[in-house]
Amino acid sequence: MLTIFLAGDSTVANCPLHEYPMAGWGQCFQEFFERDKVSVVNMAKGGASSNSFIEDGLLNDILNRIRPGDYVFIQFGHNDQKEYGSKTPERYRTMLTIYLDRVQAAGADPILVSPVHRRFFDQTGKLKNTLGEFSETVRELAQSRSIPFIDLSKQTQELYEDYGEEKSKKLFTWLRPNEHVNYPEGVEDNTHFSIEGARLIGQLVCEELKKNQHPLGKYIKSIER
Prior knowledge:
Oligomer: single chain
Order of helices and strands: EEEHHEHEHEHEEH
Strand order of the largest sheet: 3-1-4-5-6
Number of strands: 8
Distance between the termini: 27 Å
Structural class: alpha/beta
Number of helices: 6
Radius of gyration: 17 Å
Largest sheet: 5 strands, parallel
């Protein structure tokens, strides 16, 4: 059985029960694959940046468990914009390169994923880019190293704009007061997905794998929107 490891931040991570229905897309990823052939291990961590994930030893945790032929999906960006993150596109690229080098040295295959967009619209109904140059940095790195690439920045922009400003709320953790026991005062979160949104983002990743004829595509179950 091959293993898929997920390295990323809270938009990928498994959220604790007390935060439900908030979820990262990695939380739902296993359900798209044949369980007897593919195991998904979600190592993503809330608050992680490309550099802190390494500093906290999480990349080493993956490398200690990985076997030749396994895969590592790598998605960072949101927290790299913060003070403790890589902050600049240049350092962000340097950090991501460490993942590529170490995963390939272990005989496994990295897959780069551009960061998901946040849900912020302008007055014309178009999505605002709050990711700066990070999305393009991942794309360029993937091209320069011939690494499989999932453009979730592009995919999530198209998804949110297709849903529109109001309907797209259901993809995120948006709840009215007393609508859910975990959020008695309500919540309006434009970064973190609802379980419904997380499942749909995971589906987008799988659709891209099949579209790009990636070897993992043969293990993906039938996908229906």
